[in-house]
Design a protein that fits this description.
This protein is of the alpha+beta class. It has one domain. It is built from five helices and eight strands; from the N terminus they run ααβαβββββααββ. Strands 2-3-4-5-6 form a five-stranded antiparallel β-sheet. A hairpin with a 2-residue loop joins strand 7 and strand 8. The relative contact order is 0.17.
Length: 198
């Protein structure tokens, strides 16, 4: 019996490095970003003033709709995020992207770590409540490795720094009483404009 246990333990120990290598590979094999609209600059320099137009619409009681491409191009132009979460010595910020799906948004932070592409993503849930919209994390990914919401605490400071860099956009969300998501777009709904009305 003792010999069988030793063989079992030895076999398991040989398997552990393979599992660890697979996990590291999933983490450093960044999430595919090809499906995210707006990661490339717009063909023309024109375009609408995103924040001004959205703020005006919401304060006038009108809905504001934007596409994923418009949102991501706005964020790329507006954000000047500098690392401040301890990773700046070996990583470079490459972008913050929003993947809009009918089930809700996913925030993806793209970095280059030691010359390799790396991503961290957080799947968000936005709920209307007293005092505005509440945001919670439903889960996410380190690279392609799915992780529960609690695991994202490891990069919480980086996510909070990215949120702070998006302060004008956050204020815009606070003007809305609800947000409707579709694949590739979102609609901000002002106070007094029910979500089921056009």
């Amino acid at each position: 019996m003792g010999r069988a246990i030793k063989q079992l333990v030895g076999g398991a120990m040989a398997f552990v490095p393979l599992v660890l290598a697979a996990i590291v590979g999933l983490v450093f094999y960044g999430e595919p970003l090809d499906g995210i609209d707006g990661r490339r600059p717009a063909p023309s320099a024109g375009g609408r003033d995103f924040l001004d137009e959205a703020t005006r619409a919401l304060t006038e009681g009108r809905r504001f709709r934007c596409t994923e491409a418009e949102l991501n191009r706005h964020l790329a132009a507006a954000l000047r995020v500098r690392e401040s979460d301890g990773f700046e010595a070996f990583s470079e910020f490459r972008g913050l992207w929003i993947d809009l799906q009918a089930s809700g948004p996913t925030v993806i932070i793209e970095r280059e770590v030691l010359g390799l592409p790396a991503t961290v993503s957080a799947k968000l849930r936005l709920e209307a409540g007293e005092g505005g919209l509440r945001v919670s994390v439903r889960g996410g990914k380190f690279g392609r490795l799915p992780v529960p919401a609690g695991a994202l605490r490891l990069v919480r400071e980086g996510l909070e720094h990215a949120a702070a860099a998006c302060a004008p956009e956050t204020e815009l969300i606070n003007l809305a009483s609800d947000i409707q998501f579709e694949d590739g777009s979102l609609q901000l709904i002002p106070e007094g404009n029910a979500a089921d009305q056009p």
